[in-house]
């Protein structure tokens, strides 16, 4: 990783309330207890400025902090997102309820104290299991995060997933297309495509890309990102990957997949064996589920290369890209 510290482009901080004081920080492992912090070394500078300023702002506006045990109160989380290419910071306030009367005052005070912030968003989320989900409205700024890689531009909506280490993501895209040795006439299937992280570059270098993603917000953003990059040879399908593959009988030269931590799983891997693509690029953030899936794919595929990426410096987590080539 180019950055050992300050590399994270997204952090989810929780609000708490203790001894009459508002806390902002991280939850203790396997607990709802919020540990207040005023600095996070793996976060960009603007996140730390917000961490220091927000508790006082929230106290001033007297907004009620959400209590997960009693399920009462309003304000749950502050999610901060950052674009390393554009030096943009987005602040997302997550509330339990739709009403957020203090939003205007918070916005005014936040912009005064942390001028680095370019966008302020209000997300309404009644779920206690997922932090960043639900309808949102823009309180200030454009409401999207602009990110630029070596050849492509992205616009990322507040609640859409995007890799959290800018420089490593750039290197991974570069590595994937280099390993695939695209010649421009390939038909590509990009599974778990998100907002088009790999899709856009793949489309620049191949004949046609079908991108499959189950998040409505991400698919909408993916289509917009294809437009921003003037690409007409991309089709985004809003579908669960397993369901999509059940009815898909098209021809593909290449499959790229970047599943969540749980991996692709047996059904998807079996279907890939039936599709018989010439090459498969598997991007994984969990070596255990990667090994499980590769054991199935190895029936007809040789592992050509394995490349780990230090996506999360200061942690034991690793991102891995595996290139597989069909035998015979």
From TrEMBL:
Q: Which residues bind S-adenosyl-L-methionine?
A: 163, 192, 213, 258
Q: Does the keyword Methyltransferase apply?
A: yes
What PROSITE patterns would the database entry show? Answer: SAM_MT_RNA_M5U, TRMA_1, TRMA_2
Q: Where is the active site?
A: 285
Please name the Pfam families in this protein's record.
tRNA_U5-meth_tr
What is this enzyme's class at the first EC digit?
A: transferase
* Any one of the GO BP annotations: rRNA base methylation
EC number of this enzyme: 2.1.1.190
- Top-level taxonomic group: Bacteria
- Return the SUPFAM superfamilies for the record: S-adenosyl-L-methionine-dependent methyltransferases
Keywords for this protein = Methyltransferase, S-adenosyl-L-methionine, Transferase
Q: Does the record carry Cell inner membrane as a key word?
A: no
List the molecular function annotations (GO) for this entry: rRNA (uridine-C5-)-methyltransferase activity
Q: Which family does it belong to?
A: Belongs to the class I-like SAM-binding methyltransferase superfamily. RNA M5U methyltransferase family.
Can you say what this protein is called? 23S rRNA (Uracil(1939)-C(5))-methyltransferase RlmD
Gene source species: Fervidobacterium thailandense
Q: Which gene encodes it?
A: rlmD
């Amino acid at each position: 990783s180019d950055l050992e510290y300050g590399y994270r482009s997204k952090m989810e901080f929780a609000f708490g309330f203790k001894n009459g004081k508002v806390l902002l920080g991280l939850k203790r492992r396997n607990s709802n207890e919020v540990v207040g912090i005023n600095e996070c070394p793996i976060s960009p500078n603007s996140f730390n400025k917000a961490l220091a300023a927000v508790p006082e702002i929230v106290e001033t506006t007297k907004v009620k902090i959400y209590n997960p045990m009693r399920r009462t109160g309003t304000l749950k989380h502050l999610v901060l997102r950052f674009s390393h290419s554009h030096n943009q910071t987005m602040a997302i306030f997550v509330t339990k309820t739709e009403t957020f009367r203090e939003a205007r005052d918070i916005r005014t005070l936040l912009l005064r104290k942390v001028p680095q912030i370019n966008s302020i968003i209000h997300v309404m989320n009644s779920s206690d299991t997922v932090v960043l989900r639900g309808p949102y409205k823009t309180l200030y700024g454009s409401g999207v995060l602009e990110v630029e890689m070596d050849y492509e531009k992205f616009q990322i909506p507040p609640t859409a997933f995007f890799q959290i280490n800018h420089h490593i993501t750039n290197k991974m895209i570069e590595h994937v297309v280099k390993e695939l040795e695209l010649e421009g006439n390939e038909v590509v299937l990009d599974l778990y495509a998100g907002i088009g992280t790999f899709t856009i570059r793949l489309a620049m270098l191949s004949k046609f890309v079908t991108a499959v993603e189950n998040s409505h917000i991400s698919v909408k953003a993916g289509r917009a990102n294809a437009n921003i990059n003037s690409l007409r040879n991309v089709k985004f399908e809003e579908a669960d990957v397993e369901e999509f593959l059940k009815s898909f009988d098209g021809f593909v030269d290449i499959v790229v997949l970047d599943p969540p931590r749980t991996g692709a799983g047996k059904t998807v891997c079996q279907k890939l064996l039936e599709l018989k693509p010439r090459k498969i690029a598997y991007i994984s953030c969990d070596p255990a589920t990667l090994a499980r899936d590769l054991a199935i794919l190895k029936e007809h595929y040789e592992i050509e290369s394995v490349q780990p990426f230090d996506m999360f410096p200061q942690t034991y987590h690793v991102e891995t890209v595996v290139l597989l080539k069909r035998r015979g």
